[in-house]
């Protein structure tokens, strides 16, 4: 699928807001493969159940780990929840080409920011163990903002924290619903994921007059 262009903004884009999963990072082999050592062919079923449980925690409501622990017991998994969480939720591989693009944008004078749906534990791991707080000018985690994508309020609050009008921000996400939420909040937004290739992303940025080379 080709990257989807957002509407052209009347103001020049001076900031780029990146989603995380599918744009900056991936789970090697995918979530189902990561969960299979614990649940085998029930991994998919289990993950879809627990992702529903997780939804309120993405907006900062509640703690996901006790919910996950309960679900694991229901499925007969006796391993400590901390071990399962580490082996699955911390199984993150950074996409080098995406971070190289971030450095190019920074050298070219753009603000580079993170806008991601995460509950507090995975978000905390990204901030500290992966060093994201040192990489981005502004880090917008849904659990901290109190809103989760695709709610336009997420993007309104992100723009407030970045300190600019939403129209000065270009948002990149692998979910079309999140892209639509960003556009509803007044951002320029494009739909892209790593499978489309970085040449495609650079072309889209250039079409929005973003100096990405």
TrEMBL record:
One of its GO terms (molecular function) is hydrolase activity. InterPro entries: HAD-like_sf, HAD-SF_hydro_IA, HAD_sf. Keywords: Hydrolase. NCBIfam families: HAD-SF-IA-v3. This is HAD-IA family hydrolase.
């Amino acid at each position: 699928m080709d990257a989807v262009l957002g509407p052209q903004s009347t103001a020049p884009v001076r900031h780029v807001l990146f989603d995380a999963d599918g744009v900056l990072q991936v789970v090697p082999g995918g979530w189902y493969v990561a969960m299979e050592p614990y649940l085998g062919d029930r991994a998919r079923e289990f993950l879809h159940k627990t992702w529903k449980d997780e939804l309120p925690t993405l907006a900062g409501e509640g703690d996901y780990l006790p919910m996950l622990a309960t679900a694991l017991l229901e499925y007969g998994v006796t391993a400590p929840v901390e071990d399962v969480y580490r082996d699955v939720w911390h199984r993150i591989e950074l996409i080098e080409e995406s971070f190289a693009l971030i450095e190019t944008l920074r050298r070219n004078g753009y603000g580079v920011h993170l806008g991601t749906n995460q509950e507090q534990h995975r978000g905390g791991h990204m901030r500290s163990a992966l060093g994201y707080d040192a990489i981005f000018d502004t880090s917008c985690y849904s659990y901290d903002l109190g809103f989760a994508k695709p709610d336009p309020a997420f993007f309104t609050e992100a723009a407030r924290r970045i300190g600019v009008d939403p129209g000065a921000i270009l948002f990149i996400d692998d979910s079309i619903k999140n892209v639509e939420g960003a556009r509803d909040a007044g951002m320029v937004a494009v739909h892209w994921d790593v499978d489309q290739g970085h040449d495609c992303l650079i072309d889209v940025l250039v079409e929005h007059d973003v100096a990405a080379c």
